[in-house]
Amino acid sequence: NRKFHPDDTIITLPGGQTIGGGGLTLIAGPCSVESEEQICGIARRVKAAGAQFLRGGAFKPRTSPYAFQGLKAEGLELLKEAKKESGLPIVTEIMSANHIDLFLENGVDIIQVGARNMQNFELLKELGKIKKPILLKRGLSSTIEELLMSAEYIMAGGNDQVILCERGIRTYETYTRNTLDISAVPILKKLSHLPVLVDPSHAGGIAWLVEPLALAAVAAGADGLIIEVHNNPAKALSDGAQSLTPDQFDKVAEHLRSAAKAF
Ligand code: PEP
Ligand code: MN
């Protein structure tokens, strides 16, 4: 709460990367880790484009149990490999408190709590006991207040390194996958000292919408973006429709940096 903590929280990683407190953080990578060649290739490209972090899902929360569920522990190993090769710290989603040790052993730098687990309070309490940054995504149908209370669950346990993420919410609109609640950005910045990121990929669900939504997020005061990038979106095992190619990401990253300077 800003009342008790007027200054912005700045998350600083052991490698010196920071999130919050000015500057634009770019986290990019595929929805799912699919192979060593895929994740290492994408890591090289997003790093060259200026991303400071690599994302990639190993444990995937899919709507259908018959859809690709992620490479799980092998996916974490591949992320570790991509981190070693590229030097980029890694961000990946956790779905169970049983996996915390596995994530720490594999050198995960930022642990993502996905929209579907935003109110998994037992998971949040366990993540409150560790000293790792947590990227907490807003639930599909959660209010801003509920997102902030979930952040409190983590911080109440002693882990104050929480990053908030607006990723779109469910509304009656069907053109987009979700509706990006752009007003959440200034509201969260006003109420909370925590860094606020926006995920334009899961918000819009369509690759061409990523750039305009990301630019709107920068204009609204977001501390950074998390963007899905895939070497071959048409063949992606998850979320291909919203994934940018590395070439497209090059341009988007450049435009976002110019926008960040202007605002
Ligand atoms: C993801 O980041 O791949 C993801 C599943 O996001 P969300 O939890 O926002 O749906
Ligand atoms: Mn995804």
Automatic annotation (TrEMBL):
Enzyme Commission code(s) on record: 2.5.1.54
Ranges for domain DAHP synthetase I/KDSA: 16-257
Coiled coil: none
Keyword Transferase listed: yes
UniProt key word Transferase: yes
Phylogenetic lineage: Bacteria, Bacillati, Bacillota, Clostridia, Eubacteriales
MF-aspect GO terms: 3-deoxy-7-phosphoheptulonate synthase activity
Top-rank EC class of the record's enzyme: transferase
Full-sequence range covered: 74 to 336 of 350
Keyword set, alphabetical order: Transferase
Name listed for the protein in its UniProt record: 3-deoxy-7-phosphoheptulonate synthase
